[in-house]
Amino acid sequence: MVPNGWKEVKLGTLITHQKGYAFKSESYQEDGIRIIRISDTTQNSIHDKNSVYLNPLDAIGLKNYKLSTNDIVLSTVGSRPHLLDSMVGKAVQIPEKDDGALLNQNLVRLVPKKNLITNDYLFSMLKKNKFNYFISTLVRGNANQVSITLAELFAYKFLLPSYGEKRKIAKILSTWDKAISTTEALIDNSKQQKKALMQQLLTGKKRLLDDSGKPFDGEWIHGYLGDLCLFKGGSGFKEVYQGETQGELPFIKVSDMNLVSNTKFIKEANNWLSKKVADSIKAKQFPSGSVVFAKVGAALLLNRRRILIKDTIIDNNMMAGIPKKNCETHFLYQLMLTIDFAKLVQDGAVPSVNQSVLAKFKLSYPSLEEQKKITTVLTNADKEIELLEQQLADLKQEKKALMQQLLTGKRRVTVETTSDVLC
Prior knowledge:
Blueprint: E1 7-10, E2 15-19, E3 33-36, E4 52-54, E5 72-75, E6 77-78, E7 91-93, E8 102-103, E9 107-112, H1 119-126, H2 129-136, E10 140-141, E11 146-147, H3 150-153, E12 157-160, H4 163-201, E13 221-224, E14 229-233, E15 249-252, E16 265-266, E17 271-273, H5 275-280, E18 291-294, E19 305-308, E20 313-314, E21 318-323, H6 329-337, H7 355-359, E22 362-365, H8 368-406
Parallel strand pairs: 3-8, 15-20, 16-19
Antiparallel strand pairs: 1-12, 2-9, 3-4, 5-7, 5-9, 6-11, 10-11, 13-22, 14-21, 15-17, 18-19, 18-21
């Protein structure tokens, strides 16, 4: 049922568009005018890793490809929609920091027509699950890269209220957008602060106070990671045991690492084993306090490390560092976060790292007492980040619920004037 005063419209009737320019990679520079590529986009914004630039002299005559703050750009190639960060049809708004950047090929800028739809309202419609589903019905190509045509994209239909109601809805949603952006900035800042702390505290450049209030002054021990923990690989056994949903022992696979989001603890598992079954197949049990991580496959390059909070079984694509008596669990966890696993990968078709390489990793470490002081500081920093991340998740959920009400007409807003133009 169409709400009173609303109309069903096609996307293409509400916008004009500008395709990106086919810049040549040999023209890229380390400074100048930034070029926004598909690879620079995330699910919600533009990242700054491996940015490329163009000599300003080469940008003469490319005014049509110049982007402004809050411009909406959409990808016409990418992965299927279930991979949100790289999906085809993904829409992002240009942040203020990238005002004046140039639009690269395979991206298209969507410009709302005046008095038909606002920029913010248009963006809200392109972030709905309904739009993602629509894109999934259009994609063509192989498993690694798919594409859509603009003609198909512009045929997308949705309900549109009066221009005045659209403006009011967009204004309401922008309040949540600002709160989300502010919280994301706070998270980034907190992560940078923690990173700086780790560089100081885990190298001994900055010393904390002991229980008596005096700075630690003992010499750090120069040794190996293997001095602090014992590395052991997980168990490999038949798939028949990987579907158990009941039992005393959680069974963790690399894919389960996502269950804990951004926290440092593994609290849940998709699969469980009874002690009887675990004993019969001689599955290794790892004690709580062990630091576990992927040892095989691309996942190990993501540095996904977690701490077990109960005795657990892990599969043979994972490894555990079991702290020795001279090492505090959380210190080991924080220390391992600083290790770039990519530099320790062994040669072969599948990325992997073995126990002996990790055990021989050179480092310096303090006394157990100083380790505990260091982890207290870093754990507090983690808690601050986790709190902000929960606030961000709550804000996004609130905005999603509000969008479901406002963008379908289930919940109406009061328009302050009666002279609004209807679409």
